[in-house]
Amino acid sequence: MFKAVLIEKDEAGYRAAVKEVDDADLPAGDVTVRVAWSTLNYKDGLAITGKGPVVRGFPMVPGIDLAGTVEASSHPGIAVGDAVVLNGWGVGEGHWGGLAQRARLKGEWLVPLPAAFTPRQAMAIGTAGYTAMLCVMALERHGVSPGQGEVLVTGANGGVGSVAVALLARLGYTVVASTGRPQEADYLRALGAAEIIDRAQFAAPGKPLAKERWAGAVDTVGSHTLANVCASTRYRGTVAACGLAQGMDLPATVAPFILRGVTLAGVDSVMAPRAERLEAWRRLAQDLDVDKLELMTREIGLGEVVATAAALLEGRVRGRVVVDVNR
Predict the structure, then answer these.
(1) pLDDT at position 112, please?
(2) pLDDT at position 315
(3) Rounded to whole angstroms, how far apart are CA atoms 129 and 313?
(4) Residues 6+ apart with CB under 8 A from 114
(5) Residue 213: what pLDDT?
(6) Which long-range contacts (CB under 8 A, 24 or more apart) does 13-16 make?
């Protein structure tokens, strides 16, 4: 038996709670992991509260991230005792996830825990930090360099946004952080933001083209915010889009793309190829200041997950939330 957050849906309704689960109920997989740490992400919040159509089967253990030690393996290249990390692959949506003390998974979903990080630090990074690194890599691939001008990060107080600010600042970019929580300005400056601006200037419908400002941007918000960011991106700039906190719609025109040559680079962390994952984790070990990581991290136990998920969706959680699944 092991403890897990279990989401159930039946005639009694939709609910999530910590429960004792039998090992025999674990899903199919060729690797069993004793989980040490997990995380709480925006997608996990949607799954746990039922406020988004995330879960594809019930009962479901949420948690799109985990770090732990291999207890059993029939997968070549993965041995008992290996320290591993998992991000994405539909775990916590269609396959039981990491908000549990044990997980059974496909070996190809796992990557080695980088030597630079403890399991807790790896989960402080989690899908949010790994996604932020994929966004930075996308900007680099499209030629956005520190000397070209300001880079905007929207949703900067969130998990992806916080890590993106820290990474970009460490790499020498001039980072402008957009947030709806101006009281967090000192926190964002501590991560490396050069300027803090109110998200309200992006949140409403805007013009097809606005004054050019951003050499690049990392957008976690979508909807009108993403449309306005594209409209104010400089000639041949790039916007890396990875989130939909404001909405899935994109009420934009083609003007920024055909008149300014702006690139909209979509960033997917869930199904990213293994080679790209390994490179993202290598870069995180190289480019992320672990002191900044601790600044943006809050720790909770498994029993606090359900309440914290609701707070996360209400915008009352900043940075990263790591979950000690053994308390």
Answers:
(1) 97
(2) 86
(3) 18
(4) 85, 122, 281, 282, 284, 285
(5) 98
(6) 14/50, 16/48, 16/49, 16/50, 16/62, 16/306, 16/309
Distance from C-alpha of 30 to C-alpha of 19, rounded to nearest angstrom: 24
Per residue in 41-66, pLDDT (tens digit) is: 999 999 999 998 999 999 999 999 99
List the structure tokens of 229: 């960011």
How far is 242 from 209, CA to CA, in rounded Å? Answer: 22
For 1, residues 6+ apart whose C-beta sits below 8 A from its C-beta are 20, 21, 22, 23
Q: What is the mean pLDDT of residues 106-129?
A: 97
CA atoms within 13 A on the CB side of 261: 6
Residues spanned by CATH 3.40.50.720 within the chain? 126-266
Span 99-111, average pLDDT: 98
Q: 126-266 sits in which CATH class?
A: alpha beta
Contact between 302 and 48 (Cβ < 8 Å): no
- Determine the Cα–Cα distance for residues 255 and 231; give it in Å rounded to an integer: 8
Mean pLDDT rounded to a whole number for the chain: 97
> Which single residue is written with the structure tokens 């190289």?
286
Which three-class secondary structure state does DSSP give residue 200?
A: helix
Distance CA 326, CA 108 (A): 26
Cβ 116 vs Cβ 40: under 8 Å: no
What CATH number labels 2-113+296-324? Answer: 3.90.180.10
Identify the three-state secondary structure at position 89: coil
Q: pLDDT tens-digit profile of 134-158?
A: 999 999 999 999 999 999 999 999 9
All CATH 3.90.180.10 domain ranges in the chain, comma separated: 2-113+296-324
Predicted model pTM: 0.94
Question: How far is 74 from 145, CA to CA, in rounded Å?
Answer: 44
